[in-house]
Structure formats: C-alpha cells, structure tokens
C-alpha cells in the first residue's frame, strides 16, 4: 500500500504533470509511443526508404 510518505518529490511532480495533461484533454502516450519519442529526440529513430 502506498502512502504519501512513500512518494518522492520527482514522483509527485510527474503525477502533477500527468494530471495537467489529462485535464487539458491531451491524449497520454503509450509505452511504445514514449520509446519512439525518446529515440527520435536522441537521433536513434531513422526513417527508411522501403
């Protein structure tokens, strides 16, 4: 069981960000979408001509 004593400042901040995204009506990304976004930002995702 999680209590407020188990919450880290980073975890709390991430929950706040998520709540704001949901409140703004933005769709949440799936795990695969997050991984693709990270790879794209880091230059690891490349389009191919096939």
Write the layout of secondary structure elements.
Blueprint: H1 9-23, H2 31-41
Structural class: mainly alpha
Total strands: 0
Euclidean distance between termini CA atoms: 50 Å
Q: N-to-C SSE series?
A: HH
Low-confidence segments? none
Tally the helices: what do you get?
2
Cα-atom radius of gyration: 16 Å
Instruction: Specify the biggest β-sheet.
Output: none
Helix percentage range: 40-55%
If you had to describe this structure to a student in words, what would you say it looks like?
With 50 residues, the protein is mainly alpha-helical. The protein contains 2 helices and no strands. It has helices at 9-23, 31-41. The longest helix has 15 residues, at 9-23. It starts with 8 loop residues before the first helix and ends in a 9-residue tail after the last helix.
Properties at a glance:
50 residues; mainly alpha
Task: Please provide a brief summary of the model.
The protein has helices at 9-23, 31-41. The chain starts with 8 loop residues before the first helix and ends in a 9-residue tail after the last helix.
């Amino acid at each position: 069981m999680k209590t407020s004593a188990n919450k880290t400042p980073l975890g709390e901040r991430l929950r706040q960000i998520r709540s704001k995204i949901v409140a703004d009506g933005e769709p949440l990304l799936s795990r695969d979408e997050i991984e693709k976004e990270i790879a794209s930002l880091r230059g690891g995702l490349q389009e191919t001509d096939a």
